[in-house]
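Moderator note: this is an archived Q&A kept for reference. The question asked for a predicted structure of one protein chain; the sequence and the answer are reproduced below.
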Amino acid sequence: MIKATRRKSKLLIGMLVVSLAVIYLVVTAARGATAYYVTVAEVMEQGPSTRPVRVAGEALGDTIAWNTKDNVLSFDVVDADGVDARILSVIHHGPRPDMLRDGASVVLEGRYTDQGVFEANRLLLQCPSKYEAP
């Protein structure tokens, strides 16, 4: 009887430890994966931050510069709705997307630095309207 009680208590403690470890892993993974969605004007008004954010806008084609040697892409983004004409300078270390051109809808994930530049860790392009049915 005593052995059975000890065995059950050990099993219960083990399950509790495993459950707490799983909960901790889920919470820390979710915290690191979340990013707030803001406009160009909002990210500039908030100023530099260490917290990752998502910014949507339209690429300005004449500002796109691609450095193939260093694999660095830089361009400017403006709010897609055109309400606020604030321009955000973006730098991205990685490959240049083929669809990046003037007026392309982009979603950027990264941080706004104290140099006034948005460092994008991730660059997503929305499909252009040429793929939509007339």
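Archived answer notes: The radius of gyration is 23 Å.
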